[in-house]
Amino acid sequence: MSSVRHRLPGIKLRIHADSDTNDMEGAFTPLDCLLPSALLRACADGGANHLYNLTAGRDESFLPDYISGDFDSIKPAVKAFYEEKDCKLIETADQDLTDFTKCLDIMVTNIREQKLQVDTIVTLGGLAGRLDQTMASVETLFHARSMTDLPVLVIQGTSLAYLLREGRCHQLNVSTGLEGEWCSLIPVGGPCLTHTTGLKWNLDNQVLEFGKLVSTSNTYEPHDPTEGRKPVTVTADKPLLWSMGICMK
Questions:
Q1: With contact defined as beta carbons under 8 Å apart, do 100 and 21 qualify?
Q2: Closest CA relative to residue 85, chosen from 63, 105, 107
Q3: What is the H or E stretch that residue 214 is in?
Q4: What is the mean pLDDT of the chain?
Q5: Which three-class secondary structure state does DSSP give residue 230?
Q6: Cα(110)–Cα(104) distance, integer angstroms
Q7: How is 176-204 classified by DSSP, letter by letter?
């Protein structure tokens, strides 16, 4: 079994993807610190509308490298604006996958072909608004497992989601100062044998499963504020959705 360390949510950013789902008003609090440092920037269809509105007056500093999707959500004026700025427009008509999933696939291909030194893919948006679209964002994280070994994070507002891969001991650094009070482990894909340390309510090789036991509204074990929290460790035999509150400073 391999051991993987993650520094969440203060992880160094090298790349950023932009989801088209949900009302993203207020979701771009990290925009100024994330997007400028990204090696590759993208919008999925209607995500371009939100980027355009939120960066009004300073949009030259936040131009995406490409916008992809079936273009049923992007506004004509927004599409024309980014086209004029030489942003690449990639039409993906496949209706079996979401625009977010297709955008991520294109991004992973670009990372590989350009040999970019990337450590994380971060998506802004996709965790609020319509429940079906939120679940679609989670489903994209399952697709990501076959696309790339890179961590794929989804951030919106004060929430962060990350799919922990099976068969690994994940060590989550939760002492960055940006953590909120809550965290959770959700067995979205099916029953999941789970062991944890560092939580207030740990799991000792217990099975998480809908209709039986899920670990929502959990938090971290008590700690001395002068020493910081110990890492949270999670081992699971199936993919397991980790989510946590984050504080934007």
A1: yes
A2: 63
A3: none
A4: 86
A5: coil
A6: 10
A7: SS-EEEEEEEE-TTS-EEEEEESBSS--S
Strand runs labelled E in the chain: 2-7, 15-18, 41-44, 66-69, 88-91, 121-124, 152-156, 159-164, 168-173, 179-186, 192-197, 206-208, 215-218, 232-236, 240-246
* List of residues 6+ apart from 28 with CB closer than 8 A: 50, 51, 54, 124, 125
Closest-CA residue to 17 (of 142, 141, 120, 104) = 104
For the chain, the maximum distance between any two Cα atoms, rounded to a whole number of angstroms, is 56
Task: Tell me which amino acid residue 62 is.
Answer: F
Lowest-pLDDT choice from 126-130, 166-170, 192-196, 234-238:
126-130
The pTM for the full model equals 0.85
Q: What are the pLDDT digits (tens) for 61-77?
A: 788 999 999 999 999 99
Q: Specify which residues 100 forms β-bridges with.
A: none
Q: Which residues contact 235 (CB under 8 A, 6 or more apart)?
A: 1, 168, 169, 170, 194, 195, 196
